[in-house]
Amino acid sequence: MPHTRRKGKNVSSRSAADRGIEPEPYLANPSRQSRLSREQREALYELPRTSYQFSDDPVTEEQLREIYRLTALGPTAYNNQPLRITWVRSKSAKERLLGYLHESNRDAAASAPVNAVLGYDKNWQKRFAEFAPHAVAAQEFFEAEEERIPLGRLNAQVQAGYFITVVRALGLDAGPITGVDFEALAADPVLLGGADQQPFLVVNLGYGLGPYRARGLRFDFEDVTRTV
Q1: What is the mean pLDDT of the chain?
Q2: In terms of Cα–Cα distance, which of 146, 147, 97 is closest to 117?
Q3: Cα–Cα distance for residue pair 108/87, rounded to 1 Å
Q4: Is 155 within a domain?
Q5: Of 23, 185, 190, 220, which has the most beta carbons under 10 Å away?
Q6: Looking at the record, which segments are called Disordered (predicted)?
Q7: What is the mean predicted confidence (pLDDT) over 164-189?
Q8: Among residues 160, 151, 152, 146, which one has the least CA distance to residue 203?
């Protein structure tokens, strides 16, 4: 995901080859056909619903690792990957988490075998040499809080979209929650362990149980898009 620096900042326009980076071969789609069948698109986007109750079937460590692995592959600005995930699995940790949720969200969260607390690293720029060695000079620009916080928050939220899609692709169900006291949660020494991050979303994970609510209205193409 490209990021445009403000006018007046020194932005390198050199190619990857000029910067000494060996480009990987692009795996093109020569057929120009959909990468997913109609049935697969339906299974990933149309059939899954937000879950408010979950079965007792466990979510394994291997599944959590695969959720993260695939989520991390989605594009972000500078490849910065600011998303941080806290997997809440133990009874004691779940009880602490429930205290930060609005009352109407507690039953759903309590029934999920895993709750994922998604946040963004407020000092994501410190790892520039790892995630973008070709653009490490940009780290100085993002040392300013007013520059790094908005970009970190935005890209972590983009990664949250990848996260939910990956959860569904792996056959699990997701129940995202924003009714949370995130400021208080950020200060919890047990759940976040003093990490310098800001949580913004809790996602309940597991195998959902019905009944599900009727799908809400989705706006029409003509209503929310335009071509110029």
Answers
A1: 91
A2: 97
A3: 16
A4: yes
A5: 185
A6: 1-38
A7: 97
A8: 160
Q: In terms of residue numbers, what domain contains 157? A: 61-207
DSSP state of 45: I
Helix (H, G, I), strand (E, B) or coil at 222: helix
Dist. CA 97–CA 117, nearest whole Å? 9
d(CA 115, CA 174): 9
Contacts of 92 (CB under 8 A, 6+ apart): none
Q: What is the pLDDT of residues 21-45, one digit of tens each?
A: 566 766 778 888 999 999 999 999 9
Residue 92 in any domain: the answer is yes
Read off the pLDDT of residues 89-110 as tens digits, 9 standing for 90 and up: 999 999 999 999 999 999 999 9
Give me the number of domains the chain comprises: 1
Q: Is residue 134 part of a domain?
A: yes
Please count the residues of the chain.
228
CATH number, domain with residue 185: 3.40.109.10
Residue 218 domain-assigned?
no
Q: Is 145 helix (H, G, I), strand (E, B) or coil?
A: helix
Task: Give 36's contacts (C-beta < 8 A, 6+ positions apart).
Answer: 44
What the block records as the tokens of 51 is 């879950």
Question: Per the confidence metrics, is the pTM higher than 0.85?
Answer: yes
In the structure encoding, which two tokens stand for residue 15, read together?
Answer: 């190619």
Which secondary-structure segment (H or E) carries 148? Answer: helix 145-169
Asked if 3 contacts 76 with a C-beta cutoff of 8 angstroms, the reply is: no
At 1, the pLDDT band (50, 70, 90 cuts) reads: low
The pLDDT value given to residue 14: 46
> What whole-number distance in Å separates Cα of residue 218 and Cα of residue 202?
23
